[in-house]
Design a protein that fits this description.
This protein has helices at about 15-30, 45-55, 75-80, 95-105, 115-130, 140-150, 180-185, 195-200, 205-215, 255-265, 295-305, 310-325, 330-345, 355-370, and strands at about 5-10, 35-40, 60, 85-90, 110, 135, 155-165, 225-230, 235-240, 245-250, 285-290. The protein folds into three domains: about 5-140, 3-Layer(aba) Sandwich (Rossmann fold), CATH 3.40.50.720; about 140-250 and about 275-290, no CATH class; about 305-374, RNA polymerase sigma factor, region 2, helix turn helix motif (Rna Polymerase Sigma Factor, Chain: A, Orthogonal Bundle), CATH 1.10.1740. The strands form two sheets. A six-stranded parallel beta sheet has the order 3-2-1-4-5-6, sandwiched between helices. Strands 10-9-7-8-11 form a five-stranded mixed beta sheet, with helices on one face. α4 packs parallel to α5, α5 packs antiparallel against α12 and α8 crosses α12. It is of the alpha/beta class. The structure holds NADP nicotinamide-adenine-dinucleotide phosphate. NADP nicotinamide-adenine-dinucleotide phosphate binds near residues 17, 18 and 113. NADP nicotinamide-adenine-dinucleotide phosphate (NAP) binds next to α1 and α8.
Length: about 375
């Protein structure tokens, strides 16, 4: 990487799991990355500490004191600020959509962790990418596909994403009724925020990633699948028409895909990736994903194939269902039931505008609360 190349980075969601790991990457490469924007939400104490360390030009959060907050209109304004080259979008849920689109429309590079933006508005985001917006995936499985596609110009014949199987991989569905949020949050291989960890236990997260892969890489639904891979070392496979299959491997650590997206197109040494001694890896296992064990995964893919505003309804309903489960208000198995009930009530046309997507997402949140009686 050229020594004089400095990328100016804004991090939306800097107080979260991906946001904090992005700052680890920035700390490792001060000669290539500088922080110009930091945005959090409720954790003002951590945000103020980050501001003290990185001294960014622009800052925003719901709870920041007035003297330290200097962008009033929030995430979208930060994402489009003229001093920002790369916007890392790592906020939960709906909040990721408008800043992602705003940055893409201005031709900025978006390093996207928040897959919900693509799940809700995949076709709109795809159009922005085709019109010149640059979106680099930060999620490890889509990042693996992106890495495998480098230097390839022919169409792929199939994508296979791996899934650890989450906290309850070795239990049957009827053993899950009384599992607690603490048990669901004990992910076997990844350290992540609460929402995505529960989505990993229900495998809704894998449905979201398949939807993300479909829109980012333009591959039909029938050519994308997921398999269970308990070790989380192979992150995805890409199969080409000549029968050749490429895979990307790394120990589970989000800082590697974050670093790849921030440094792209360069690979750079000195990051966090633990060196892989292939001879010590032992056996890597892959199993078919039994979707009868994962009703959220089935609902997610069903909504994706229906298209229109169904994925927005899916995201809204899942957001609320997971929130209610984490708050001890509904059971683990009620997550998929609630999502299903919202989707059954929803009706969508084929063409959707951004306004439709936002309004359906909000409707699904309200309806999920009503159906849960909370
Ligand atoms: N963690 C991972 O390893 C991982 C991997 C792949 C993809 N992702 C995706 O990356 C995104 C973030 O995940 P995470 O695990 O980092 O989540 P997290 O730890 O819960 O962090 C979420 C971040 O978003 C902020 N936030 C919450 N609600 C917000 C709102 N309404 N408006 C604006 N900001 C808000 C939070 O601020 P406060 O903390 O200040 O409240 C925090 O900075 C998710 O979409 C997830 O699916 C995560």
């Amino acid at each position: 990487m050229a020594d004089d190349l400095m990328k100016r980075v804004a991090i939306l969601g800097s107080t979260g799991s991906v946001g904090r790991q992005t700052l680890d990457v920035v700390r490792s490469f001060p000669e290539h990355l500088s922080v110009v924007g930091l945005a959090g939400w409720s954790n003002s104490e951590l945000l103020e500490a980050q501001i003290g360390e990185f001294n960014p030009k622009i800052t925003w959060s719901r709870g920041l004191s007035e003297e330290t907050q200097n962008v009033s209109d929030g995430l979208e304004e930060m994402a489009t600020h003229p001093d920002v080259d790369v916007v890392v979008v790592a906020t939960t849920g709906f909040s990721s959509l408008s800043p992602t689109l705003a940055a893409l429309r201005l031709g900025k590079t978006v390093a996207l962790a928040s897959k919900e933006a693509v799940v809700m508005a995949g076709s709109i985001i795809q159009r922005e990418i085709q019109s010149g917006g640059k979106l680099f995936p930060v999620d490890s499985e889509p990042s693996a596909i992106w890495q495998c596609l480098q230097g390839e110009s022919s169409e792929v014949s199939g994508l296979t994403l791996t899934a650890s199987g989450g906290a309850f991989r070795d239990r049957s569905l009827d053993q899950l009724d009384d599992v607690t949020p603490e048990e669901a949050l004990a992910h076997p291989t990844w350290q992540m925020g609460a929402k995505i960890t529960v989505d990993s236990a229900t495998l809704m997260n894998k449905a979201f990633e398949i939807i993300e892969a479909r829109w980012l890489f333009g591959v039909d639904w029938d050519r994308i699948q997921a398999v269970i891979h308990p070790q989380s070392i192979v992150h995805s496979f890409v199969e080409f028409h000549d029968g050749s299959v490429k895979a990307q491997l790394a120990f589970p650590d989000m800082r590697l895909p974050i670093q790849y997206a921030l440094m792209y197109p360069e690979r750079i040494s000195g990051g966090f990736a633990e060196r892989m001694e292939i001879e010590k890896l032992g056996s890597l296992e892959f199993y078919p994903l039994d979707d009868t064990k994962y009703p959220c995964y089935r609902e997610g893919l069903k909504a994706a194939r229906l298209g229109g505003t169904y994925p927005a309804a899916l995201c809204g309903a899942d957001d609320v269902a997971v929130e209610l489960f984490l708050g001890g208000k509904i059971s683990f198995l009620a997550i998929s039931e609630l999502v299903k009930r919202v989707l059954v009530e929803h009706k969508s046309g084929d063409e959707t505008s951004l306004e439709d997507i936002v309004s359906v997402g909000n409707w699904a949140r309200i309806r999920a609360h009503e159906l849960a009686g909370i």
